[in-house]
Amino acid sequence: MIAVGSRTDLSPQLIASMHEFRTEIFINRMGWSLPLVDGVERDSYDNEDAVYFTVQDFDDCMTACARLLPTTRPYMLADLFPQLVSNTPVPHDPTVWELGRFATDVRKTGAGRVLSLSQPTLDLLEAIMTYSRRHGVRQLVLVTAVAIERLLLRAGFHMHRLGAPERNETGLMVACVIEVTPESEAEMFDAASCVVAAASTTQVQ
Fold it and tell me: Is the pLDDT of residue 107 over 60?
């Protein structure tokens, strides 16, 4: 089941589960150095501006999550990774939002390991694209690993880089733009019809 909403729209229990899931993926598994609040991963961008997407399985276990932030308000790419943007000014536009804290755990879904995105990942991305179109969002910016960028391109997204990749403590990272269009969604799911599984963890800053 996919839930979408702000911190006040979603239940406190669901918000708590999301932060616990992010802690497991980003800190325990990926080894990232991220801020903790009351023992779980949470940062200053987890505020009233954020729109969350959560996915739970039939046992109510969290299997994926993501966060959207408007670029007219403080967001991670502008504040923390401006060096990754060299082809254009850092976006500050009501039609451009940031996709971040994107993580999926396909080991809980029983999916195998191949070089493609899993169905749970694609379901979450479909929900994000649908929400974006309905709310006048034309582009999504994100900071992600180059390996994940390749998987998104293979899945049919219309996307381009905002600058050259740069290596940090988490790996080779790149800032990208995904175009939010009906055509990109249709092509993505045409490509996804051949996809059966994914790498064990997908992550976006």
Answer: no
Cα gap 180→74, rounded to integer Å: 21
Query: Using only C-alpha atoms, what is the Rg of the chain?
Result: 16
Residue ranges per structural domain of the chain: 2-204
Q: 40 phi and psi, to 5 degrees?
A: -125, 155
Classify domain 2-204 by CATH architecture. 3-Layer(aba) Sandwich (3.40)
The alpha-helical segments, DSSP class H, found in 23-179 are: 76-80, 119-134, 146-154
Q: What is the C-alpha to C-alpha distance for residues 202 and 88, in angstroms, rounded to an integer? A: 27
The three-point CA angle 22-100-58 to 5° equals 50
Which pLDDT value is given to residue 184?
Answer: 45
Residues, the chain: 205
Confidence (pTM): 0.85
Q: What is the SS3 assignment for 204? A: strand
Measure the CA–CA gap between 153 and 150, rounded to whole angstroms: 5
